Amino acid sequence: MCGIAGIMTRDGSAPPEAALNAMMDALSHRGPDGSGRHYGGDTALLQTRLAIIDLTTGDQPLYEPGGAALVANGEIYNYIELRARMDGTPFQTASDCEPALFLYRQSGDAFADELRGMYAIAIHDPTEGGSLILARDPFGIKPLYYAETATGLVFASEPGVILRSGLLDVALDQAARDIFLQLQFSCGRFLPIAGIRRVLPGETLVARQGRIVARRQRQALPTGGPEKISEQDALDRLDAAIRNSVRVHQRSDVPYGLFLSGGIDSSAILSMMAELNESPVIAFTAGFDDGSVQDERAHARMLAARVGAQHEEVTFGREDFFRLLPRIAAAVDDPTADYAVLPSWTLAERAAQDLKVVLCGEGGDELFAGYGRYRSVQRPWWLGGKAIRSRGVFDRLGVLHDTPTGWRDSIAGREALDRQAGRNRLQSAQATDCEDWLPNDLLVKLDRCLMAHGLEGRTPFLDPAVAEAAFRLPDDLKIRDGKGKWLLRQWLNKRLPEADPFAPKRGFTVPVGAWIAGDAARLGNLVARQACIQDIARPDRVETLFAAASKKREGQAAWVLLFYALWHKALIGGAAIRDASIHEALEAA
Predict the structure, then answer these.
(1) Are 559 and 510 spatial neighbours (Cβ–Cβ below 8 Å)?
(2) Separation CA 395–CA 16 (nearest Å)
């Protein structure tokens, strides 16, 4: 796990050193264990390292005999198998990323098709006039952004790093902003910072002379509709897939642990980790000191004791909310107003005291159909069925000057493409979530919260073996008797029945509405006074919204406006709010 960045100029000149130095400084939190640079004519690559595999010789950039240089962020889990297959290759290190460089020399821009893992990779090939290749893993676990500027192509692991280069004017993308307001994240290639784009999940870009000249994309999910398979055969296949995925996700030269919520996904990973490891698993669970929401610590504590895991608990409370939110909003520079960023931040801070790697349960709901919205898409409209994300956060609240239109167009387009590919309604909803919600909300949250503390997050469910075992399951092995994740529940029930996998989904929530409501008058007034809020909403209605924040919908909308106001102040306004409280940040000029 690391940070990467770089510049390829348009006019063939050397990239500006001041911009490179500023970007390297902005990347430092992602790689506390070292840094490296590659200079090659019109191209420079940067990397800051969090050392996980090959602690001795794995520093980057990496080079191959043809002159190509590589920097990468992530882990290639099948590097052992790739090295064994590439007998005779003149490897110079034991790094998991070095095989990718030689695969590039063999296969060109199709090199990433053979990689199993999470990665954002940049390769500079000086031959034939010089090329820059950028590649991102199929699920979008690792982030990668770029901007085409007057100087040339600028890329980085975080959009804030691109802004620090000084090569791009800082401005708001209003269309992406409107999507964010309605969904709490933005879709596709665009984010609310004008001029900065995402490399899409599974995409490989080729640039020459500072311009993108080619694109190709590798899909994360298998093609085709549901397959015919018996429940027992499906369980056997699932067991093999989870075992294999957890095993390779544990490949590390440093200690690792687990984020344990006590839900089905993390409990399933705990069960397999406990079987595969001789030493006790180290598990971390967050809870809240507010009795109005579900606290998962007692259940997680019981499960940890059952498998002999070492269990560590952290608490996130009202004071933490007011103290930490500006720092979190500034760190989550590709904004996602997912309230799970709050406990994720504190969990990462605690886990980083003991470890460099944690396994996490992201992806289980998407692959095994755990969300209630998936059950809804299966019902006809006259029985309450509806498409996923059919209502935006601010619909019918009367807060915004103009309720955004077209904010669902990207989702609707993806749904149409999935139907043409032969997927049924349930698969289409799952695939749509995997293409946008997962990489642009959940995985952004995971990456920024963990990397801010020098901690790597690994996601065993987001693996080709698990996707093959799960995505094409018959609908009744995903959803049955009103419960999603049916097959995964069955699997967990056989291994760890104490997890009570057939209990109703407890859900995960954070009492942000209650915390906001407790200071509604002051917060509402401060948020309403922000210029970025007055651009989109009437101040009096914002204050009325905050006064009603104890209600679910109003509390959600108030939270989105609060997060957006802080994010805008830090990223668009350039204010230094990381060490401020919410009130101090909003009161700052």
Answers:
(1) no
(2) 46
**Do residues 537 and 401 make contact, with C-beta atoms less than 8 angstroms apart?**
yes
pTM to 2 decimal places: 0.96
Between the alpha carbon of residue 434 and those of residues 140, 175, 202, 267, 465, the distances in Å are: 9, 22, 12, 22, 16
Nearest to 132 by CA among 42, 61, 47: 42
CA distance 373 to 42: 49
Cα–Cα distance measured from residue 419 to residue 432, given in angstroms and rounded to the nearest whole number: 11
406 φ/ψ sector (left φ>0, alpha ψ -120 to 50, else beta): left
From residue 541, alpha-carbon distances to 392, 533, 568, 583 in Å are 18, 11, 20, 20
Residue type, 467: A
Residue 539 neighbours by CB distance under 10 Å: 15
151: CB partners within 8 A, 6+ apart: 7, 9, 10, 15, 16, 19, 167, 210
Give the angle subtended at the CA of 345 by the CAs of 276 and 515, to the nearest 5°.
Answer: 130
Q: What's the start-to-end Cα distance of the chain, in Å? A: 36
- In Å, what is the CA distance from 470 to each residue of 83, 223, 473? 29, 12, 6
- Tens digits of residue pLDDT in 460-516: 999 999 999 999 999 999 999 999 999 999 999 999 999 999 987 666 688 999 999
- Max Cα-Cα span within the chain: 71
H-run or E-run covering 488:
helix 486-495
Is residue 473 within 8 A of residue 491, CB to CB? The reply is no
Structure tokens at 460: 């065993």
Cβ 260 vs Cβ 509: under 8 Å:
no
R_g over Cα of the chain: 23
Token pair, residue 361, equals: 């349960």
Give the Cα-Cα-Cα angle 185, 190, 193 (nearest 5 degrees): 85
Residues 74 and 142: their CA atoms lie apart, in Å, by 7
Q: What is the torsional sign of CA 60, 65, 67, 72?
A: negative
Order across the sheet with 117-125: list the strands: 62-63, 69-76, 117-125, 131-136, 203-208, 211-217
pLDDT of residue 508: 67
